[in-house]
Structure formats: C-alpha cells, structure tokens
Amino acid sequence: MQRRLLGGTALDLVAAAALLLPWWREPVTPVLLVPGPTLALPRETWAGWEVLGAGGMALLLVPAGAAIVAAAVGRPGAWRLLIGAAGVAAVVVAVSVAIDRGGAAQGAGIAALAGFAAAGIAVSAGPVRVVPALAAGAVAVIVAGLAVPGPDAGPAGAAGPFVRLGSLDGAGFRSGTPGTRAPHPGLTVLDGGAAVLTDDGVVRLVAGGRAEVLARVPPHGRGGEQGVLGVAGDRVARWVDAGVVMVTGLRAGDPVAVRIRDVAAAGRVGSDGSVWLRAAGDPLATVRRLDLTAYAGAQDLAAVYLPVVTIDPPVGSASLDVDDLRPVPGGALRTTGGRLDRVTPEPGHVAVTTLAGGLDATCGLTATPRDAFLRNASPPVPDADGGVWLVDDHRTLLRLGPDSLLRAVPTPLPGVVTDLVVTPGGAVVMALEGPDGPALWRLPDAESALAPLPAAPPWCAADPPPVGPPVGLVPVANTSGDPLGVPLDATGRWASGRAGATGGIVVMTPDGQRLPLGARQDGTLGVVVPDGSGGAWWLEVTGNRATLVHGRPGLPQERFPAVDRPAPEQGSLLLPDLGGRPPLLGTADGAFRIAGGAAVPVVTGRIDGGVVRADGRGWVLADGRLLALDGDRVLGPVIDAGAGRASDVPVVVQLAKGVPAHALALPNAALGLDARGRAVVVSDGVVLAVDDAGTVTPVAQDPRLGAPHTVVGGLVDVGDQDTLLRVELPR
Q: How much is the pTM?
C-alpha cells in the first residue's frame, strides 16, 4: 500500500507542477494595427498560477503538501486521506476553470488527469467506506474556496434594469483580465456586440467581465487621447500621428492601409461607416466625408481630396463641428445647445432640422420632443429601428422613437455616461463613470424599459418664433492667428500685437498699411479698445497695479499713472469710449474713472460690459441690468428684471411669455453700439436695440452672434478662423 501511496503523492505533485503550464488560451486571434497588411498576434495564454491566484493555488497545494508531511511522520491513514483530497481538488479546480472560462489549455488537463488518478489510488488503497466522506468533504471545501473571488472573477452588479459588465479601470490591456484599462473609452458595435475603443486598441468584455483583446495599437503608432475613431465592418479608423488618420483592416492579412494626411479634426465613425472630418486649411464650417470601405490596398491621400459635404455654415443654426457630428445614412446627428439636430446635405448647403430640445427649462422632459428641455445631452446614437438614444443631464436615458415621441428609462443611470452604443439585438451598452470608477454597463432589451413622458405643461414656451430676422455678417478682415487681433472700426482696421510680452502694437489697415500705436513697457497686456479716432487704449497690468495707455498713429504715446485695480483677482475690462476720453475701468466691484493716479467710482456693481458714445452718452451692464450714463452721471436703469436679474431663461422665451422688453433678465449678455449709435444688447442671439429715450426694441435674432466688439462705425464680431465680420442689423 505504501508504494501506491507514494505513486498517489507523485501524481498530486504532477498536478501541482501543472500550475506552471498554460491553463487558458484566448479563443480569438488578436491583430496588430500597423500601417500595412494587418498582422496576427500570438494568442494570449495564462499559466495556472495566474488563473487561480493565491486562494486557488492554496486549495491545490496545501493538501498535497500536507500529504507529504503525513507520510514523513508515519500517518498512513491521514496520508491516504490527503492524497485523495489533493486529487479531488485538482480535478474540481481544473473543471471549474474550464467551465468558467469556456475552455482550458493543456496544463488544466494534466492537472485534472493527475488529480483523478491520485484520487483513484487513494480509493483503491484501502476500505471503500472512507471514500464518500473524503470526497464530500474535499468537494465542499474546494467549492467554498472557489466561491471566493480570485484574480479572474469578473465584477458583477445591477442597478435596477442596468447590468454591470465589467471595469474599465483594470490593471492592463490583456485578454483574460477582469475588466480592461480604458482611460478614454469609446464604444462601437463589432460582430453584433459592443466593443471598447481605447488608447491601446479594441477590446470587448465577455462572460465574467473579462477582457478579450481584438486589436492592438503599436505604442509608437498612437495619436491623440482617443487614438481609435471607430469600426465599420472589418475596417478600423484611427489617428496614427498629428494630422494623420489611417484606415486598416481588422482581420489578419487584410492589405488595406489608407493614409489620410493633413487632417485638422475628425469625428467618430458613424453608423453609415464614414468619418466626417476637416482638412488643414479648410474653413471651420467645412466638412469632408471619409468612407471606410471606399478604398482598397495601400494608398496615401491628402484630406483635401476627400468628398466635401459642405463648406458653408448652416444659416440660422450653430456652426458645424466635426467632433459633435455622428454620421448616419443620409447625413449626421448632433447635440448642441440643448438640441438634437439632424444635418442633411443638400445641393450647395446643409439643412439642419431640430428633432428634439426646447429653450424653456420649465417645460422639463416631455413626450413632445420639440418641447422637451435637454440639459447636457450626450452625443446621439441611432438604433436599427429608426430611433435615437441619448442621455439627458448625465443620468436619464432617453429614446426618440420613429413615432416622434420621446420616452425615458425611469431608473437613473448608475453613473455619468461617457459613451453609449445600441447593439443590433436592442441592448444599450454604456461606458459610465460611477462611484466605483469607470465601468461598462448594459441595459438588455432597452426599448421595453422605456416609460412615457408627460405632455408639455400649458405654460411651456419651448420653441417660440424668432423675434426678428438674422443679422448680416460681412467679412471685413482676417487677423490670421494674431494673438491680439482686436477690431478698431467697421471698415476692417484692427490692432495687432503679441499678448503677454512687451512689444509694439500696430494698426493694420485694409490696404495693408502698418501704423504703429506705441510699445508696451510694463506687465501683461490687458484689454485693448478703440478710442473713436483711429487709435486705441490698453491696459498694462503688473500684479494688482494697472497702467492705462493711449496710442495714436503718428503721435506720442500717452501713459497715465498706475493705479491699484479694484478686485484684481476678478480681472478688469475697459469700456470703449468713442469720444477720445479715457475709458472707464470695469471690474467686479463697479466701473471706475482713472484720474490723478486713482480709480474713482462711477457705477457700483459687477460690470459685464459698457460703451460710451462720442457725445458722452453711455450704457453699462451692471449686476445683470442695463444702466444709462451721461458722462459720469448714472441716469438710471433701462432694462431691469428686479429680483429676477440672475435668471438664465433665454430672452426669446421671456418675450414669448409676455415679459416687457424693459423688464428682461439678460443672461450671457454683451453690450455695444450699432452703426446708428444705438445701444445694442446681445443675449443668447437676440439683439435688443435701445434708443436715447430708453425704448427697448427686439430687432434681430441670430444664433451665430457671440459678443460683438464696439468699433468706430458699428459692431464687429469674430467668426471662424479669425475672420472679422461687420454686423449689419436689419433695422
């Protein structure tokens, strides 16, 4: 019997030694995305000790070691019992690995066979009556031990209908690990399921939350924070260098290697298999289309040769940004400014149709898409049935159905969404940033989890008609990336210089002349404003001290004594005075006149803008209201919402609800003078003109307007690529 027990011990040691052999091999062959034919990589293998971890190895090694000790001290009964326990442990551990991982490599098979033989020797070496107790005890211990999460246990969990698939904050980018490392995760649909786009390549999470790497990116071939732009069929697009996008195959041996150079910006791969991008040197509104399946073999193309979707910004809508666009068959979807839009190419232009999203926050989420107020909406994702999914305010999952009704999942998302996709089977898969870190979550049969939203309340004014026509925007100059680039008049004169260092400031004229205004001497350049007669005023700031400087072509520079800046930590601005007088200094504490080396208060309150006409009549935005000035004397409020000054309700919504023009709140307001000398307030695209009698009249509405500069002869806005645009009001 002793010889049999020695043989059983040897078999237990063989099972233990099998921990050094491969116990698991990944089921798919990953590829390396190189600028050429796609390369196959060796399949990932895990040794037994990696698969089991310390707890699993202890279950296999401790009984075998104890059997050796029992043999050494001359306890044949315990020796036999421990040989059988170690053998059963090896069998159960190996079978558990095969079941858990969907297969096992040769090391697990060797451990199982050796363990089975050792257990058989233990049974045959003595009375059979001890075997049931031995087997039952060993299995109970082993199963209990395997229930303890080891290194290969995938994190599980649920929050209402949402199911956690695995972590996106794993230890590395390797098949078989619990979760994966994805610092900037994007999602795509691949082979009917969701896959994660990372800086390292493409990976998906399978049973138990373990990673299955599908494609790797060479460490030297990464570009940008999100290297992989997306997948379409068996093609993948990614940044490979600054300004270079590469399209390669996702299957080993695929010869496709299309290099697109001179790319200024690129969005994500859409459901139609294309990327919308912009070439270097294109106007910012230009969109080009790269079809991932349109090219074969190895090619090197300049982005300017790609088909153009549009070169002009849409009229009456926010300009196109390829980063916001999600291509779909026939166009693209986007969320911008609280709205879900469909962008459709038309001959010579693009049409933008708002599908959902209103302007009135009091409407809330409603079944009628155009009335619903969307806050911080995520990029939209289409599904196979013609619906569109998006997340509102980071936590509410919405679907706009083909029946033009908006529905929501009542249960809040268990984290802040960073990306989502919809699988062909109807599941929504989301990358979420939750309390326990980034993770991948799934909503199975997502459409059945939706619930109706209420109708819009009767006071809802989500989509009021425009209060006036669009403005005219006439290009008058281009500052060509100049860090100063401040417009001085409506004919195209502007001030050039380099902010942040001493040096000269010159006036650039439409006919190409350079007229010196003077040189900065101290500190950092602050605000520069026109003086009304061809020159400019500016601030030179050093710490808490500010020096006011006046420069005019052909005349000596005039410098005022430095003054202490009120509320210096809040910054300061100069309020243009087109009468040649020193401009007022606007701060968080009020507007001040610089005189005699001191800042003398003129207006109290937070100053957000101001302007003074050549005749001395002026206006300032102070604490959310518009005040009229005559010289340094405050005449009183012209527009004042009283206790509602801090409201962020858009002006167009307030007007639709009957708020008088003189009682409007002015969110995101800017102030200037038009060509007729009227004060003009621009708030969320609405233009309010104020005459000398204090009458306030809405005259235009244009979402393209930002914060126009007051110049000699009217208003000038800064458009795409540093173009200076004269603003022409319709009346």
A: 0.78
